[in-house]
Amino acid sequence: MTETNTDTLRRLPIGLSGAALKYLAIVTMLIDHTALVVVLFGFIFNGRMLLVRRVDILPSLYTLMRQVGRIAFPIFLFLLVQGFIHTRDRRKYAVRLFLFACLSELPFNLAVDRTLFSFTHQNVFWTLFAGFMMMWILEKIQTSDLPRWAALPAGLAVVAALCATVTVCRTDYSYHGLLSLLLLYLFRYNKAMYILAGGFSFAWEPAAMIAFLPIALYNGEKGHAPKYFFYAFYPLHLLLLVGINYGLFGHL
Question: Is the pLDDT of residue 229 over 70?
Answer without folding.
Answer: yes
